[in-house]
Amino acid sequence: MSWIVGIIGLLFALLGIIKLFTLSSKSLPILFFCFGILLIGLVILPYSVDLSQIRWLRLTYRLVCGLVAIGVLCGGIVSCFMAFGVHTWKGKDFQGTVVVLGTLIIQDQPSRMLKARLDAAVAFLKENPKSSCIVSGGQGKNEDYTEAEIMEKYLVQQGIDPSRIYQEGNSSNTKQNLQYSLQVIQQNHLGEQIVIITNAFHRYRAQMFADQLGVTAYSVSGTCRFDLEFMFWFREIAAVLKAWITGI
Protein backbone atom coordinates (compact mmCIF):
# COMPACT_ATOMS: atom_id res chain seq x y z
CA MET A 1 0.00 0.00 0.00
CA SER A 2 2.78 2.41 0.88
CA TRP A 3 4.37 2.13 -2.56
CA ILE A 4 1.07 3.17 -4.19
CA VAL A 5 0.99 6.28 -2.00
CA GLY A 6 4.59 6.97 -2.97
CA ILE A 7 3.83 6.71 -6.69
CA ILE A 8 0.82 9.02 -6.30
CA GLY A 9 3.02 11.50 -4.44
CA LEU A 10 5.64 11.33 -7.18
CA LEU A 11 3.02 12.00 -9.86
CA PHE A 12 1.64 14.98 -7.94
CA ALA A 13 5.15 16.41 -7.48
CA LEU A 14 6.08 15.93 -11.15
CA LEU A 15 2.83 17.48 -12.37
CA GLY A 16 3.40 20.43 -10.06
CA ILE A 17 6.90 20.98 -11.44
CA ILE A 18 5.74 20.75 -15.06
CA LYS A 19 2.81 23.11 -14.59
CA LEU A 20 4.97 25.56 -12.66
CA PHE A 21 6.53 26.48 -16.01
CA THR A 22 3.37 26.40 -18.13
CA LEU A 23 0.60 27.96 -16.02
CA SER A 24 0.42 31.70 -15.44
CA SER A 25 -0.80 31.11 -11.88
CA LYS A 26 1.90 29.46 -9.75
CA SER A 27 -0.05 28.75 -6.57
CA LEU A 28 -1.78 25.57 -7.78
CA PRO A 29 1.40 23.90 -9.16
CA ILE A 30 3.22 24.74 -5.91
CA LEU A 31 0.42 23.16 -3.88
CA PHE A 32 0.54 20.04 -6.04
CA PHE A 33 4.31 19.81 -5.63
CA CYS A 34 4.15 20.26 -1.86
CA PHE A 35 1.38 17.68 -1.49
CA GLY A 36 3.37 15.23 -3.57
CA ILE A 37 6.48 15.75 -1.43
CA LEU A 38 4.35 15.29 1.70
CA LEU A 39 3.05 11.93 0.46
CA ILE A 40 6.55 10.79 -0.48
CA GLY A 41 7.82 11.88 2.95
CA LEU A 42 5.08 9.91 4.72
CA VAL A 43 6.19 6.79 2.83
CA ILE A 44 9.93 7.22 3.35
CA LEU A 45 9.99 8.37 6.97
CA PRO A 46 9.12 5.03 8.67
CA TYR A 47 11.92 3.33 6.72
CA SER A 48 14.54 5.95 7.54
CA VAL A 49 13.73 6.67 11.21
CA ASP A 50 12.72 4.40 14.08
CA LEU A 51 9.52 6.20 15.05
CA SER A 52 9.03 4.05 18.13
CA GLN A 53 12.08 5.71 19.69
CA ILE A 54 11.01 9.34 19.11
CA ARG A 55 7.63 10.01 20.69
CA TRP A 56 6.99 13.53 19.35
CA LEU A 57 7.89 12.48 15.82
CA ARG A 58 5.68 9.40 16.05
CA LEU A 59 2.73 11.47 17.24
CA THR A 60 3.31 14.10 14.56
CA TYR A 61 3.52 11.40 11.91
CA ARG A 62 0.22 9.88 13.02
CA LEU A 63 -1.42 13.30 13.14
CA VAL A 64 -0.31 14.16 9.62
CA CYS A 65 -1.42 10.75 8.33
CA GLY A 66 -4.79 11.27 9.97
CA LEU A 67 -5.21 14.71 8.45
CA VAL A 68 -4.28 13.42 5.00
CA ALA A 69 -6.78 10.56 5.37
CA ILE A 70 -9.54 13.00 6.40
CA GLY A 71 -8.65 15.26 3.48
CA VAL A 72 -8.81 12.38 1.01
CA LEU A 73 -12.18 11.27 2.43
CA CYS A 74 -13.61 14.80 2.22
CA GLY A 75 -12.22 15.19 -1.29
CA GLY A 76 -13.84 11.94 -2.35
CA ILE A 77 -17.23 12.96 -0.97
CA VAL A 78 -17.11 16.38 -2.62
CA SER A 79 -15.96 14.81 -5.89
CA CYS A 80 -19.05 12.60 -5.89
CA PHE A 81 -21.25 15.69 -5.66
CA MET A 82 -19.23 17.39 -8.40
CA ALA A 83 -19.49 14.39 -10.70
CA PHE A 84 -23.08 13.30 -10.12
CA GLY A 85 -24.87 16.35 -8.70
CA VAL A 86 -25.31 18.15 -12.03
CA HIS A 87 -28.18 18.48 -14.50
CA THR A 88 -27.03 18.06 -18.09
CA TRP A 89 -29.15 19.53 -20.87
CA LYS A 90 -30.14 16.69 -23.20
CA GLY A 91 -33.07 18.24 -25.00
CA LYS A 92 -33.38 19.77 -28.46
CA ASP A 93 -34.48 23.14 -29.86
CA PHE A 94 -33.45 25.09 -26.77
CA GLN A 95 -35.01 28.57 -26.88
CA GLY A 96 -33.82 29.94 -23.55
CA THR A 97 -30.61 31.67 -22.51
CA VAL A 98 -27.09 30.27 -22.56
CA VAL A 99 -24.87 31.71 -19.83
CA VAL A 100 -21.15 31.27 -20.50
CA LEU A 101 -19.11 31.73 -17.34
CA GLY A 102 -15.86 33.65 -17.69
CA THR A 103 -12.40 32.81 -16.46
CA LEU A 104 -8.82 33.94 -17.14
CA ILE A 105 -7.98 35.86 -20.31
CA ILE A 106 -4.44 36.40 -21.59
CA GLN A 107 -4.07 39.88 -23.08
CA ASP A 108 -6.87 39.94 -25.69
CA GLN A 109 -7.26 36.18 -26.02
CA PRO A 110 -9.14 33.57 -23.99
CA SER A 111 -7.08 31.16 -21.92
CA ARG A 112 -7.22 27.43 -22.70
CA MET A 113 -9.82 26.94 -20.01
CA LEU A 114 -11.99 29.77 -21.29
CA LYS A 115 -11.56 28.68 -24.91
CA ALA A 116 -12.93 25.24 -23.97
CA ARG A 117 -16.05 26.91 -22.58
CA LEU A 118 -16.44 29.15 -25.62
CA ASP A 119 -16.02 26.28 -28.08
CA ALA A 120 -18.77 24.40 -26.25
CA ALA A 121 -20.92 27.54 -26.43
CA VAL A 122 -20.33 27.88 -30.18
CA ALA A 123 -21.43 24.29 -30.78
CA PHE A 124 -24.50 24.67 -28.56
CA LEU A 125 -25.59 27.99 -30.06
CA LYS A 126 -25.26 26.65 -33.60
CA GLU A 127 -27.32 23.59 -32.66
CA ASN A 128 -29.94 25.81 -31.02
CA PRO A 129 -30.30 28.90 -33.25
CA LYS A 130 -33.28 30.31 -31.32
CA SER A 131 -31.30 30.64 -28.09
CA SER A 132 -29.68 33.83 -26.74
CA CYS A 133 -26.31 34.03 -25.03
CA ILE A 134 -24.90 35.96 -22.09
CA VAL A 135 -21.12 36.10 -21.73
CA SER A 136 -20.37 36.77 -18.07
CA GLY A 137 -17.11 37.93 -16.58
CA GLY A 138 -15.59 41.16 -15.28
CA GLN A 139 -12.11 42.59 -15.51
CA GLY A 140 -9.59 40.78 -13.35
CA LYS A 141 -6.22 41.86 -12.04
CA ASN A 142 -3.66 42.53 -14.77
CA GLU A 143 -6.38 42.23 -17.44
CA ASP A 144 -6.86 44.99 -20.00
CA TYR A 145 -10.37 43.99 -20.95
CA THR A 146 -13.39 42.43 -19.30
CA GLU A 147 -13.68 38.72 -19.84
CA ALA A 148 -17.10 39.36 -21.39
CA GLU A 149 -15.57 41.55 -24.12
CA ILE A 150 -13.06 38.90 -25.14
CA MET A 151 -15.70 36.18 -24.97
CA GLU A 152 -18.09 38.05 -27.27
CA LYS A 153 -15.28 38.80 -29.71
CA TYR A 154 -14.37 35.09 -29.87
CA LEU A 155 -17.97 33.96 -30.40
CA VAL A 156 -18.47 36.47 -33.22
CA GLN A 157 -15.24 35.29 -34.88
CA GLN A 158 -16.64 31.75 -34.76
CA GLY A 159 -19.76 32.80 -36.63
CA ILE A 160 -22.26 33.59 -33.87
CA ASP A 161 -24.59 36.50 -34.69
CA PRO A 162 -23.69 39.46 -32.41
CA SER A 163 -27.39 40.25 -31.96
CA ARG A 164 -27.72 37.01 -29.96
CA ILE A 165 -24.95 37.95 -27.50
CA TYR A 166 -25.30 40.07 -24.35
CA GLN A 167 -22.37 41.13 -22.18
CA GLU A 168 -22.28 41.01 -18.39
CA GLY A 169 -18.96 42.58 -17.44
CA ASN A 170 -19.25 43.41 -13.75
CA SER A 171 -19.01 40.05 -11.96
CA SER A 172 -15.92 38.84 -10.13
CA ASN A 173 -16.99 35.37 -8.94
CA THR A 174 -19.31 32.53 -9.93
CA LYS A 175 -22.24 33.63 -7.78
CA GLN A 176 -22.09 37.14 -9.22
CA ASN A 177 -21.87 35.66 -12.74
CA LEU A 178 -25.30 34.18 -12.21
CA GLN A 179 -26.80 37.04 -10.18
CA TYR A 180 -25.88 39.66 -12.76
CA SER A 181 -26.76 37.42 -15.70
CA LEU A 182 -30.26 37.01 -14.28
CA GLN A 183 -30.54 40.80 -14.24
CA VAL A 184 -29.54 40.90 -17.93
CA ILE A 185 -32.19 38.27 -18.69
CA GLN A 186 -34.88 40.33 -16.96
CA GLN A 187 -33.80 43.64 -18.47
CA ASN A 188 -33.76 42.27 -22.02
CA HIS A 189 -36.75 39.91 -21.65
CA LEU A 190 -34.71 36.87 -22.64
CA GLY A 191 -35.78 33.26 -22.25
CA GLU A 192 -35.86 32.32 -18.57
CA GLN A 193 -34.74 28.74 -19.06
CA ILE A 194 -30.98 28.64 -18.53
CA VAL A 195 -28.13 26.45 -19.68
CA ILE A 196 -24.80 27.23 -18.02
CA ILE A 197 -21.65 26.52 -19.99
CA THR A 198 -18.44 26.05 -18.04
CA ASN A 199 -15.80 23.36 -17.40
CA ALA A 200 -16.76 19.97 -16.02
CA PHE A 201 -15.21 20.57 -12.61
CA HIS A 202 -17.11 23.87 -12.25
CA ARG A 203 -20.62 22.70 -13.16
CA TYR A 204 -21.74 21.57 -9.71
CA ARG A 205 -20.87 24.83 -7.94
CA ALA A 206 -22.42 26.92 -10.72
CA GLN A 207 -25.67 24.96 -10.53
CA MET A 208 -25.60 25.14 -6.72
CA PHE A 209 -25.53 28.94 -6.87
CA ALA A 210 -28.30 28.89 -9.47
CA ASP A 211 -30.42 26.84 -7.06
CA GLN A 212 -29.72 29.40 -4.31
CA LEU A 213 -30.99 32.13 -6.64
CA GLY A 214 -34.19 30.20 -7.28
CA VAL A 215 -33.30 29.14 -10.82
CA THR A 216 -33.37 25.60 -12.15
CA ALA A 217 -30.41 25.54 -14.50
CA TYR A 218 -28.96 22.87 -16.74
CA SER A 219 -25.33 22.83 -17.78
CA VAL A 220 -22.96 21.82 -20.55
CA SER A 221 -19.22 21.45 -20.12
CA GLY A 222 -16.36 22.41 -22.37
CA THR A 223 -13.62 19.85 -22.95
CA CYS A 224 -10.09 20.81 -21.93
CA ARG A 225 -6.82 18.91 -21.58
CA PHE A 226 -6.95 16.20 -18.94
CA ASP A 227 -3.98 17.49 -16.94
CA LEU A 228 -5.58 20.93 -16.58
CA GLU A 229 -8.99 19.49 -15.69
CA PHE A 230 -7.30 17.21 -13.14
CA MET A 231 -5.46 20.05 -11.39
CA PHE A 232 -8.42 22.41 -11.33
CA TRP A 233 -10.70 19.64 -10.10
CA PHE A 234 -8.68 19.54 -6.88
CA ARG A 235 -8.82 23.30 -6.49
CA GLU A 236 -12.57 23.18 -7.08
CA ILE A 237 -12.97 20.76 -4.16
CA ALA A 238 -11.78 23.51 -1.83
CA ALA A 239 -14.06 26.04 -3.57
CA VAL A 240 -17.09 23.76 -3.11
CA LEU A 241 -16.29 23.26 0.58
CA LYS A 242 -16.02 27.03 0.99
CA ALA A 243 -19.35 27.51 -0.82
CA TRP A 244 -21.03 24.95 1.43
CA ILE A 245 -19.77 26.76 4.54
CA THR A 246 -20.05 30.42 3.53
CA GLY A 247 -22.55 30.36 0.66
CA ILE A 248 -20.12 32.25 -1.56
TrEMBL record:
Signal peptide: none annotated. Residues 98-229 form the DUF218 domain. The chain crosses the membrane at residues 30-49, 61-84. Gene3D superfamilies: HUPs (3.40.50.620). Keywords: Membrane, Transmembrane, Transmembrane helix. InterPro entries: Cell_Envelope_Assoc, DUF218, Rossmann-like_a/b/a_fold. This is YdcF family protein.
